[in-house]
Design a protein that fits this description.
The protein folds into two domains: about 160 residues, 3-Layer(aba) Sandwich (Rossmann fold), CATH 3.40.50.300; about 140 residues, Helicase, Ruva Protein, domain 3, CATH 1.10.8. About 50% of the residues lie in helices and about 10% in strands. The protein has 16 helices and nine strands. The strands form three sheets. The chain has a five-stranded parallel sheet with strand order 2-5-8-1-9. Strands 3-4 form a two-stranded antiparallel ribbon. The two termini are about 35 Å apart. Bound molecules: adenosine-5'-triphosphate and magnesium ion.
């Protein structure tokens, strides 16, 4: 995420077209908005169109607008998103789902910097920065003839790939704290601490819904918290049956290395729990040197120090 943020800082200040790539809930819209806010266009509008949510026959009118009476149902003049975004930024979300016919029209706008309202008689020039996002593999869409290659090259100037949460479990504690503070503030609740074991359990989850799912779970956990804290038992009841920590880690998604990491994390956590966070004991039953277990835990994002503190075990 730090790499993404430093790329974002640099590209935001430019006029470059950015293509944000990432699974659902990884923060694509948040990043698009941040790019706009940190650009010289921040004083202008930030206008969004979700290409997957608007019916194909309405996208053109949504983007370019229409004149009164230009088609059945066009009761009045409608100013399209491109004109609304003049001197600002247009965010075309789920661009990979844009129908082919519409792609041709978008290409023309990107090349000429002009839009034509449906039923209009002259083009209107617009000064708009274009930021797009998709959860799809755009290059594959091009190969499958579902996305125009010429349009691809126009929008794929600066790809910004947001990593899924399962590939950055070391970010989870920070995000949990952030969302916990946010939820407390929204509801006027006292802060609810998360135990290190609960945090480790959250880190071993696969998070198919990414940051959005994490945010929802944090809110749920805070509602379920007993004794003023979120512990591992709270985490166990927070995940609905079938989608829980255990179920998801039994069949984790992703590359082999990720699955192995998730499995190792789970085995080590279980052993630490059994030994009441006694590292020497846990290392012995796992057949590891103590130093090796420390190293492994660090790699896997397990916070041994915090776990021992909670167990009241002596510092080694
Ligand atoms: N790094 C982050 N810090 C804080 N909040 C985040 C972060 N990343 C994402 N979020 C929050 O997670 C939620 C999902 O983010 P967002 O809507 O930007 O994802 P998305 O990639 O556009 O998802 P989708 O593909 O489903 O539209 C939002 O509430 C957003 O504010
Ligand atoms: Mg989105």
């Amino acid at each position: 995420m730090q790499r993404v943020m430093s790329q974002l800082e640099r590209v935001a200040a430019s006029e470059t077209r950015v293509c944000i790539l990432g699974e659902t809930g990884t923060g694509k819209e948040l990043v698009a908005r941040t790019i706009h806010e940190r650009s010289a266009r921040a004083g202008g509008a930030f206008v969004t169109l979700n290409c997957a949510a608007v019916p194909a026959e309405l996208i053109e009118s949504e983007l370019f607008g229409h004149e009164k009476g230009s088609f059945t149902g066009a009761a009045g003049r409608h100013i399209g998103k491109f004109e609304q975004a003049d001197h600002g930024t247009i965010f075309l979300d789920e661009i990979g789902d844009m129908p082919l016919a519409m792609q041709a029209k978008l290409l023309r706008v990107l090349e000429e910097g002009e839009v034509e309202r449906i039923g209009g008689d002259k083009p209107v020039s617009v000064d708009v920065r274009v930021v797009v996002a998709t959860h799809r593999d755009l290059e594959a869409r091009v190969r499958e003839d579902k996305f125009r290659q010429d349009l691809f090259h126009r929008i794929y100037v600066f790809p910004l790939a947001l990593p899924p949460l399962r590939e950055r479990h070391e970010d989870i504690p920070l995000l949990v704290e952030h969302f916990a503070a946010q939820v407390s503030a929204q509801n006027g609740w006292k802060p609810v601490p998360f135990t290190a074991e609960a945090m480790a359990a959250l880190q071993s989850h696969q998070w198919p819904g990414n940051v959005r799912e994490l945010r929802n779970i944090v809110e749920r956990l805070m509602l379920l918290a007993t004794n003023g804290q979120v512990d591992v038992a709270t985490v166990e009841i927070a995940f609905p049956k079938g989608g829980g920590v255990a179920a998801s880690s039994a069949f984790p998604a992703g590359a082999l290395a990720e699955r192995v990491d998730a499995f190792e994390r789970e085995v080590i956590l279980a052993e630490l729990k059994r030994s009441h966070s006694n590292v020497s004991l846990a290392a012995k039953s796992l057949g590891l040197e103590r130093s090796h277990l420390y190293k492994k835990a660090e790699q896997l994002g397990i916070n041994l120090r915090a776990m021992r503190r909670e167990q009241g075990s002596p510092q080694e």
